[in-house]
Amino acid sequence: MYAQYAKWTKQSVWFVTRMKENAVYHVTKVITDNSKKKAAKGVLKEQFITIGYKDETGKVIRLKLRRIVFNAEDGKTICVYN
User: Fold this and answer.
1) What is the pTM of this model?
2) Which domain range does residue 60 map to?
3) Max intra-chain CA distance, the chain
4) What is d(CA 46, CA 68) in angstroms, rounded to the nearest whole number?
5) Residue 55 CA, distance from chain mean position
6) 45 CB contacts (<8 Å, ≥6 apart)?
7) For a Cys staple, 35 with which of 14, 44, 60, 66, CB 3.0–4.6 Å?
């Protein structure tokens, strides 16, 4: 999965996907953080993150992505990154 994201990123392809609840990542920069505001809607957080994964040879690859946490009108919180 992360290898495909790396390929798309290298090709400058924009993509949106849901982040797994158990995903491990490191926040490198916070762009927006409205998560503490009561009844916040829309974009709650926008961050630059790094995710590590091993390629087919076992080499650790660091993938730099943008993570967005969005609170939909129906109250569901959605995490996406590209």
Assistant:
1) 0.79
2) 2-81
3) 47
4) 5
5) 19
6) 30, 32, 33, 34, 35, 67, 68, 69
7) 44
Q: In what order do the strands lie in the sheet with 26-33?
A: 26-33, 42-54, 60-71, 77-81
Number of folded domains that form the chain: 1
The tens digit of pLDDT for each residue in 20-72 reads: 888 899 999 999 998 888 777 788 899 999 999 998 899 999 999 999 888 87
Q: How far is CA 44 from CA 2, 17, 63, 80, in A?
A: 24, 17, 23, 12
Q: Which residue has the higher pLDDT, 24 or 80?
A: 24
Question: In whole angstroms, what is the distance from residue 62 CA to residue 27 CA?
Answer: 13
CA atoms in the 13 A half-sphere facing the CB of 19: 19
The residue among 33, 34, 68 whose CA lies nearest residue 48 is 68
